[in-house]
């Protein structure tokens, strides 16, 4: 187990090496973040005006009108479409780098635009899964929350390679989900540990940054200097957002490298072939 973790961590560091060569890959998660905020605002502001959130607070999940669930599904669908579009652009650009090319932002956006029908189909599947898990979570008490959490984690792992599949092959969303789940047999250890490793490292760094930032804000507040308070808050926001962008970029690069080797596409620039051979040796 320790050997597998060490191997996965080496692959994560290789992903960081790719990002250092193509820092423009950070543009895609940045655009994704801005777009998702706009989607949230476009749904939240009308609902606030209609008093829907007050109704949700006063009623149980079973008492909510069907329209609330329809709006929830439309929100999931729109949000996932935006997220998957920019993830596809990121992975598409990363694929170009892994094949030895020099990608640009326009390359990634071009690839994502060409895959838009499949991206929408994948978003439709993900939105359906998300709504089902949400209903189970809200209507089945603590057991529902436990089951939904377990199924959600399984879906995350099984669908981790859907975007690289969509980028690399001319297939629909359903077939891409099937292939991602099939490749799980080869990538199980590196898939789970890689995702968890990136999340754990950046979760720890973010926690430390938050503690440092809060300390700076408290110190600035004690000085009663408005410019210092604004500077401390701005510094904290920039650091947290920057970490989130790097984490998203590394995850996309990592998934692209996983897919390329597991599917037999060949060597990936910046990744050690012998290490990848060990990582994805077929189970017997």
Describe, in plain words, how this protein is organized in 3D.
The chain has 284 residues and is mainly α. It has one domain (2-279). The chain is 84% helix and 0% strand. It has 11 helices and no strands. Helix 1 (2-21) crosses helix 9, helix 4 packs across helix 10 and helix 8 (162-168) crosses helix 9 (173-223). The longest helix is centred in the last third of the chain and has 51 residues, at 173-223. The model has no long low-confidence stretch (mean pLDDT 81).
Q: Provide the succession of SSEs.
A: HHHHHHHHHHH
**What share of the residues lie within helices?**
over 70%
Biggest sheet architecture: none
Instruction: Work out the number of β strands.
Output: 0
Mean pLDDT: 81
**How much beta, percentage-wise?**
under 5%
Derived structural class: mainly alpha
What is the count of DSSP helices, taking H or I runs of 4+ residues?
A: 11
Low-pLDDT runs: none
Tally of domains? 1
Overall 3D shape: globular
Using the CA coordinates, give the radius of gyration. 21 Å
Termini separation: 17 Å
């Amino acid at each position: 187990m320790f050997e597998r973790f060490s191997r996965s961590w080496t692959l994560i560091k290789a992903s960081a090496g790719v990002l250092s060569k193509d820092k423009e890959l950070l543009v895609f998660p940045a655009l994704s973040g801005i777009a998702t905020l706009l989607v949230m605002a476009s749904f939240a502001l009308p609902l606030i005006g209609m008093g829907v959130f007050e109704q949700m607070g006063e009623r149980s999940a079973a008492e909510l009108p069907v329209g609330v669930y329809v709006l929830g599904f439309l929100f999931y669908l729109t949000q996932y479409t935006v997220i998957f579009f920019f993830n596809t652009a990121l992975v598409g650009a990363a694929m170009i780098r892994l094949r030895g090319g020099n990608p640009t932002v326009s390359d990634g956006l071009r690839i994502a635009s060409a895959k838009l029908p499949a991206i929408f189909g994948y978003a439709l599947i993900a939105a359906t899964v998300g709504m089902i898990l949400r209903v189970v979570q809200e209507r089945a008490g603590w057991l529902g929350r436990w089951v939904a959490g377990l199924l959600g984690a399984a879906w995350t792992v099984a669908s981790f390679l859907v975007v690289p599949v969509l980028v690399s092959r001319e297939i629909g969303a359903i077939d891409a989900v099937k292939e991602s789940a099939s490749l799980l047999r080869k990538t199980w250890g590196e898939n789970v540990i890689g995702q968890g490793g990136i999340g754990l490292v950046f979760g720890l760094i973010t926690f430390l940054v938050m503690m440092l930032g809060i300390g700076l804000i408290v110190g600035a507040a004690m000085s009663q200097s408005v410019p210092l308070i604004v500077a401390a808050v701005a510094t904290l926001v920039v650091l947290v957002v920057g970490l989130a962008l790097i984490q998203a970029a590394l995850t996309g690069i990592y998934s692209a490298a996983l897919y390329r080797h597991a599917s037999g596409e060949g060597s990936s620039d910046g990744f050690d072939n012998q290490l990848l051979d060990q990582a994805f040796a077929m189970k017997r």
